[in-house]
Amino acid sequence: MIKVMSLAIRNLLRYKRRTLLTGLLIAVGVMAVIVFTGLSGSFKRAIVGQITDSVLSHLQVHKKGYMASIDNLPLDRMIPEKPFHKLTDILDQTPGVDGFSPRIKFGAMLSNFAQTTNVRLNGIDPKKELTAVPLLPSRIKNPLNPDVLLTPGQVLLPEILAKGMGIGTGDTVVLVANNKDGSVNGMTFVVAGVVESLMGPGGRDGYLHLDDAASLLRMETPEISEVAVRVTGFDTLATVADRVNQALTPMTTPKGQPLFEVHTWQQLTPFYNVVRMIDLMTLGIKIILIAVVLISVLNVMIMSVYERVREIGTLAAMGTQPFRIMALFVAEGFCLGLTGALVGAVLGTGVLWILNLTGVEVAFGGANQVFELAPSVTPGEVISACLIVLLVSVLASLQPAAKAAALEPVDALRHV
């Protein structure tokens, strides 16, 4: 085997220019795959992290039927007090649940005493909300108190709405809301900060304290619109969601229907389709790499066989077994692919290292939110790209190698 590999390398070096060009083509392909995988992966992690850690959390629990009409923020499909306490007991006892936060979601009229407009609001318990969405404070501009997210009597307003109405931190505003019975109530609040917009559901909502939301809606007993749940490990999300679902299944309505429904972040935001599109694009880039390697190595091996017919005939006439001739050409394809893959892997990881040093900023979404990416790839992704190249290189060499091995010595020696 060592002799075969030595001969293969020597044969490749006999045609330096062709070997160099083919190797460079393979290396550029591997580098492109590694760079694209690193950039797309970091973009996906940044967007998903922002959506789950500052708005949605990892999964949400609603009363059955709430999600079907969530655009209207229905107040007649809230989780009553008694089932809510049972739900919190279940979440406390479910392995993998890191924290959860109850929310009251409703629409209201916002007035700055000169203008009035509609606003979507979330009533939250600030301490519990931070356990479910720890990055929420990073979206607040000009906070009244940087150490405290929110206190009773304060409201956080969406950035676009506050900017349009000329409202700033410390201003006094009035919120007017209808409860589920249709009665109207109004309360004054101090603006504690402005919430930066984010793409997706809930990305342009305001926030106020849970007790203020219950008072504004004149709730006689506390009711909850949704419970946002954060899991300890993102990879365990499906397992934890299944555990919560199974624990809630026995809780039913008097008619025997399920009382709750559980949704993961993938089911709550249309951005999940963008994530799937990124995965498909990554697969497409890998398929292009396979095609590049396949065509390049196949072309080189075919040319090599045609140029060395008399040489192959001489080897066969000297008693060299056909399988050794075939192994020689397969080894040449393997060496070509291995060299290109290693050079491409070094170049690809080097480009990602430079991008990490310089930084990559991407604006995304209707709000043109800017994300700073930290592109990186795992060793497994680099190894898999190299293995794909090696496998395709060997496969591409098989047909020309088989053709060389099948040449008759007399016919080969007569070849001109």
From TrEMBL:
Segments traversing the membrane: 20-39, 283-306, 327-355, 382-398
InterPro entries in the cross-refs: ABC3_permease_C, Lipoprotein-release_system, MacB_PCD
Main location as per UniProt: membrane
Domain annotation MacB-like periplasmic core: ranges: 19-246
Lipoprotein is among the record's keywords: yes
GO BP terms: lipoprotein localization to outer membrane
Domain of life: Bacteria
Domain ABC3 transporter permease C-terminal: 287-409
Family as reported in the entry's similarity comment: Belongs to the ABC-4 integral membrane protein family. LolC/E subfamily.
Name under which the protein is recorded: ABC-type transport system, involved in lipoprotein release, permease component
Organism: Desulfotignum phosphitoxidans DSM 13687
Organismal lineage: Bacteria, Pseudomonadati, Thermodesulfobacteriota, Desulfobacteria, Desulfobacterales
